[in-house]
Amino acid sequence: MPLPARLRLTLLMTLAVYPVVTLYLYVLMPLTDGWPIWQRSLILVPMMSATIVLAVVPFINRRFSAFIAGRRPATA
Question: What is the pTM of this model?
């Protein structure tokens, strides 16, 4: 039984977003040492939102649209 489209999209988004979040945390943590969590989040959330909306989602839609829709890619 094939996976539903939303589940396939969720899988791809998780695989794409996890490394970006991890990278941002590695960069931000030393720079924000001692800050309360809400201040760190205030910096991280806009960065992540912009990255996801402007880079991750368009890339996934372009590259994996056939997989998300559950159809085989066209062969030449």
Answer: 0.77
